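User: C-alpha cells for this one?
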Amino acid sequence: MKILFIAICTLLFSNFSFSQEVISTQGDSYINASGSVDFTIGEVVTFTGTDGSNYLTQGFHQTNWNFVELEDHKPDFEVNIYPNPVEDELNIRTVEFQDITYVLYDSRGRIVRENELSGEVTAITVTDLAPGSYQLTLSGSNQTQLKTFKLIKNH
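Assistant:
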C-alpha cells in the first residue's frame, strides 16, 4: 500500500512540476549548483523583501498568458508594427495608409494617442508614456476595425 501511495504521489508531483508554460516577450532562467531563478516581464508579484540595499520580489508565472497578441479583423490588410516591446518610437508600416487611423489605448482603456497614418511608415513617439501594456487599433474609413495589437512599453 505504501509503494502505491508513493508511486501516485511521485506521478502527481512530476505532472505539476512540468505542466507550467510561460509565453512572454522577455525573461530568463538562471541555474547553478546552489539553486535556480526564473523571471518574466509581467510576472505577478506576491511578495517583496529587502535588506536595505537589495530587493527580492517573489511571484508566480502566468500559465499560457500571451503578452503580444493580434486581433486580425481584416486578414487581407497587411501591416507591420515594430518594435514590440517599444521604448521610444513605435512604427506602423503599411502600403495602404490612406484613410487609415490609429488609436493607442492604455491598460485602462483611455486614449493616449490617435491620428491618421501619414505615409507608408508612420512613427509614433511614446517616450512620455508610462511602462506597461497598451493596445493599438487601426481602423479604415467608416470606423471599420482592421487590426488590433497588444503592445508592451518598456522604460
